[in-house]
Design goal:
With 265 residues, this protein is mainly beta. 3% of the residues lie in helices and 43% in strands. The chain folds into two domains: 135 residues, Beta Complex (Metal Binding Protein, Guanine Nucleotide Exchange Factor, Chain A), CATH 2.170.150.40; 112 residues, Metal Binding Protein, Guanine Nucleotide Exchange Factor, Chain A (Beta Complex). It contains one helix and 22 strands. Strands 1-4-5-9-8-7-6 form a seven-stranded antiparallel β-sheet, with no helix packed on it. A seven-stranded antiparallel β-sheet has the order 12-15-16-20-19-18-17, with no helix packed on it. A four-stranded antiparallel β-sheet has the order 3-2-10-11, with no helix packed on it. A hairpin with a 2-residue loop joins strand 18 and strand 19. The radius of gyration is 22 Å and the shape is elongated.
Length: 265
């Protein structure tokens, strides 16, 4: 019987996984000092994690590495349930594999040495504790997986976006975004969106693959629906086709594609 690829990936979520990366990885500490720089890094997923962490050879760490004191104050508990089957990044000290915490460049528990023999000699570094480069380009959000794709495709599908019967956008030239593990997203040209109903907000989120997203609320019959729309004003080069386009949360509005509703809201 054939195995669905998505099911195969879920079956290994409980395992400690790694893959070498040929990219030169650099971690920058306080003041821009080079804490580590290596072309021998590996991407590591601890059990139940869904994004990678960088692990670098101990020999390529240029800063002082020392055991974390047993009485070091714990970090704030992450918002996710550490007993859940899958959880997102965050809460670096809540490791799900055996190992030893270490201080790096004077930063408490910014590193972790897994006990696994295949990762002997490597130190996992807390992504949030450092600034990162792949080759000479910055990395934000989290390390990028070599198995994650973001494909932007031009389309002539007919997309309509409504809320409570009010037309918010209509397009026959959307850009469809097919991203690994995510639903299809429909990005629309500004001219195809009723921008008179949009109001920018201060919300910003980070996608490691597309860049920093800006958000807009939608004004509707005296009500302001917060952060209903997002877009990338200056996306990363790999997603440059999305620059200046708008995307609606399709579970908060009524979207039809070629006359077929995406969801029942």
């Amino acid at each position: 019987m054939a195995l669905h690829e998505g099911n195969a990936q879920r079956q290994v979520l409980g395992d400690l996984r790694y893959v070498p990366t040929p990219k030169r990885i650099t971690a920058l500490g306080p003041g821009g000092q080079v804490v580590a720089s290596t072309d021998r890094a590996v991407l590591v997923k601890e059990p139940r994690r869904v994004v990678d962490e960088y692990a670098v050879p101990q020999d390529d760490v240029r800063a002082v590495v020392s055991p974390t004191a047993a009485d070091a104050p714990p970090r704030e508990r992450p918002w996710f349930d550490p007993d859940a089957a899958v959880y997102p990044p965050g809460g670096f000290r809540w490791h799900t594999t055996a190992g030893t915490e270490v201080d790096v460049a004077g930063l408490v528990a910014a590193g972790f040495r897994p006990d696994d023999a295949d990762l002997a000699g490597y130190v996992l570094l807390d992504f949030s504790a450092f600034d990162w480069l792949e080759e000479d380009e910055p990395v934000i959000g989290h390390p990028r997986s070599p198995y994650h794709r973001v494909d932007v495709r031009r389309s002539t599908r007919h997309v309509r976006v409504e809320r409570d019967g009010v037309l918010l956008a209509e397009s026959r030239r959307p850009r469809l975004v097919f991203e690994t593990g995510m639903p299809v997203r429909y990005y629309l040209e500004p001219a195809d969106v009723d921008q008179s109903r949009l109001a920018p907000t201060d919300t910003r989120t980070i996608c490691a693959y597309k860049g920093v997203a800006s958000y807009w609320s939608v004004r509707l019959d005296g009500e302001e629906l917060t952060d209903l729309v997002w877009g990338y004003l200056a996306p990363f080069p790999d997603a440059h086709e999305l620059a200046g386009l708008y995307c609606f949360y399709d579970d908060k509005v009524d979207v039809t594609v070629d006359g077929t509703p995406l969801h029942a809201r």
